[in-house]
Amino acid sequence: MLLSIGMPVFNDAAFLPSALDSLLNQSFKDFELIISDDQSTDGSADICKDYALRDNRIKYIRQSENIGISANMKFLLNESVGKYFMWAANDDVWDIDFVDELVNALESNQTAIVAFCPYLYINEATEVIPPAAIRAFDYSANRAYERIQNLTKFYDDGFGYGIFVREKILEVEFPRWVWPNQKCAYNNIYPSLFFYLTKGDFLLVGSKPLWFNRIKNNPHHSIPYRGHMIPCYLAFVIRKINLVLWCFVCVQRASGSIGLLINILPLLFRRFAEDCWVELKTQIRNYKAGMVKLF
Q: Most buried one in 88, 143, 209, 269, CB count within 10 A?
C-alpha cells in the first residue's frame, strides 16, 4: 500500500458523499482510506458504512466516545500503513490528479517530508469563493530555521492536508487547548506544521489548484464567548499563548536543538503579537458596529 488516507468524520452528512467520491475517483488508485467516525449523530455513519461496502479500500472505524479532532487525527495516523499519508477533511474536494501529482513529486525527491499544491476556497455550493485568488505558499529551504521563518511570514495551515512521508511524521502531536478553549478546534493544525518543517523540506507542486477547501456558514468549531468582546478576546489570547508553547514543543520534539529553539522564539512571539493585534482591531470594529457586546 503506497498511500494511506485518514479521514476524521463528525456530523458532515451533507458534504461527506462528495468528499468520498472525490477521493475514491482519484486517478491514483493504490491507497487505503481509513475513516474514523467521532460519534456522528447526523447519518454520517450510515453513509460511511454504505461506501465501505462498495469499495474495499475503505476501512471504517467508529469511536466508542467522542475524542475530539486532535485525538482523531493522531488515531488515524497510528492506524495507517502506507509509505505516504494524508489527512482528508470530510467536507473538502480534490482534483482527480491531486494524489498522483503529489505522490510522484515525493517519489522524485528524497529530502522532502511533505508535498502540497496551490488551492482555492469553495463555499457550501462548491463554488469558488470570490475573490478567486489561488493560495500558494512555498516554505521550502535548506535549513529548518528558514522554513519556519517562511511559515511565520506566510501563516497558512493548508499544507497540513498535503501528502507526507509517513515514517517521518509518526511522532507528531496535535494540541488540546486549555480553558476556556477546550471545545475550540481552531488553530489545532498549526503546531504540527512547525514539526514537519523542522523534520524535512517542503515541496510546492505545480501552479494549478488541486485542492478545494470548503468554508461553511456554520462550522462545528466553537468560539468561546462569541458575541462578547472582552471575554472572547481574552480567550483568543489564551489560545494563542497555548499555540506558541505547542509550536515550541513541536520544534523541540522534531529537532532537539537548543540553538534552533532560541532562534525561533522571536519569530513565534512576533507572530503572536501580530495575531493578537489584528484580532483586537476586529473585535473593536465589531463592537462599534453593534455586532458584539462588551461583556
A: 88
